[in-house]
Amino acid sequence: MRITFELEPADIxxxxxxxxxxxxxxxxxxxxxxxxxxxxxxxxxxxxTAPAYVRKRLAEVQRLIGMLEDEAWALPDPDRSDVIATxxxxxxxxxxxxxxxxxxxxxxxxxxxxxxxxxxxxxxxAYAQFCAYRAELGNGAADAAERQRIARExxxxxxxxQARMSxxxxxxxxxxxxxx
Length: 180
Known about the structure:
Layout lengths: L8 H20 L2 H14 L7 H18 L9 H13 L15 H13 L1 H17 L6 H34 L3
Helix pairs in contact: 1-4, 2-3, 2-4, 3-4, 3-5, 4-5, 6-7
């Protein structure tokens, strides 16, 4: 069975307001604590019994955590702040719909994740490209000169990808600010 529903602007505004609250909370929280709370939530959710639409987005939470923890990627602000706010929201068991309500408890988390994943699509794509490039370069360089060359190439690729992310963010912000 497939159930489809449409979110109206007022519905989406409720999610934006909830995200704004999470963003305020994330400013006071230590990033390590936020990541640990998200990991704890993932570990303690009944993923096996969760609906497929939730499981699909939970895999993305894992990727967001990996992106934050990847020192070589060094995700810059404001994208880093968006990811942290998303994890704060996800980690709160008493968000718009309490997580312990069977079947629908994670519905709001799935919707929020979907909204943010769409917003962060340029970041996710750039990170995937960065990881692929890093894998191409390999990490088993035998000598120091080769390791330095690889580090330089990786830094150049990261800078180019993050510059592209920044341009995409500015375009998206300009498009959302312009009258329709």
